[in-house]
Fold:
Amino acid sequence: MRWLMNVLTSSIGAKALMAATGLILVLFLVGHMVGNLQLFGGPDMLNGYAEFLHSKPLVLWVVRLGMIAAVLLHILSSIRLTLLNNRARPTAYKLKRPISSTFASRNMFLTGLVVAAFVTYHLLHFTFRATHPAFATLKDAHGRFDVYSMVVQSFSDPLIAGAYIVALVLLGLHLWHAIGSTFQSLGLMSPKLQPIVSAMSLALAGLLVLGNVAMPIAVLLGLVARTQGVTLP
Amino acid sequence: MTLMKLTLRIWRQKNARTEGQFVTYQLDNVSEHMSFLEMLDVLNEGLVAKGEEPVAFDHDCREGICGACSLMINGYPHGPLPKTTTCQLHMRHFKDGDVITVEPWRARAFPVIKDCVTDRSAFDRIMQAGGFISVRTGGTPDANALPIRKRSADLSMDAAACIGCGACVAACKNASAMLFVAAKVGQFAHLPQGQVERKERVKAMIGRMDVEGFGNCTNTYDCEGACPKQIPRRFINEMNRDFIWAALTE
Structure:
């Protein structure tokens, strides 16, 4: 397996690793968003979906472990690459202007850091419920865990909803560059595909942002009905 | 003929071991017909006349084909004019009263030797690692004895237009040499003569590129925008594919 290590630590191999792990994360994001949009279908739909996911522990844990591996590889490789890249130019220019690059493409590490911080908070918030321990006792009319109330009550707080919206927009910037970049890094791009991939990258990133921010925004605007349950401290 | 007054902020550095700093020079009577390098020649004549050390900068053919000239001019490699080397940049693209910042390429792999001159021999070592064909091709073959698609010949020529100036490294936020190496790999990848060593070549040249301390590509494409020969990003994509395939199959 030493050859694999050599490949993954070479400049092109490391990029391919970033692209492949990133692709897994994008696919997850699509599934995650589609699942969560059931919020608009009401408490029965969302809570039923949550129960369905938890009724398949084997599948759930295979997906979770795969995600943990992809996230770890993506983050560790990005830290290593960023350190190498910073070392490649020890003296900065006094004046340096961008030519073909974009704000999104130049700031992948920065937007990535924000996304990592957001994901950590998101997990502590909704998965481990460490930020709001009272959520753990939420039950709906069928005795299922009340995901719907948890989400609606959380996003009723403008501070929490605002944090989600800001983080999701930055995630969108990250994805805008990332999705198109994946094709180039894996050698799947061509001059013919380039405009299609660019448009698709922007469209998918935009769709993921819009679909996800729709939830906190809808709650803030009172478009989603509140239900009984514990109230936030 | 319009004459301009210019303020030049130029990087001065005695040698590789000393710290450098920017020194400001005033230059009157700059003709719009001068090339950027001729303008620096005028500055240097004045400095020599005053008994000062002239500004060191790289130049050779002054026809835009050798790749010797460099210079980061006002934040752009080879200056603000696209598809142009510094020697082909004329002063008519500047205006009276302009302040022009002139710096050397900045990269760990391109250490400053003096003032704005950097050591770009890292590129030579990448070429030595695989930028050649070692199969014996015999004497001069008859024309068209070896059929090559027109499209492939054109692509090979596009890649071979690279003059190895290093503007791609200078422009890249990571000081990556990917566009240079991609051009040097790509000029062979489209020709039948390049197929025998195709896998070894891409692995050896990327290996050397990494050893030299260039950064990693993050697909920002400032290299493509800075390239005076317009080497397109497609060659980076093709090299990525070649490298991944070679790494997985060899």
Notes: Chain A has one domain: 11-86+104-220. The radius of gyration of chain A is 20 Å. The interface with chain B takes residues 3, 7, 10-16, 81, 84-85, 87-102, 105-106, 108, 177, 180-181, 183-191 of chain A (CB under 8 Å).
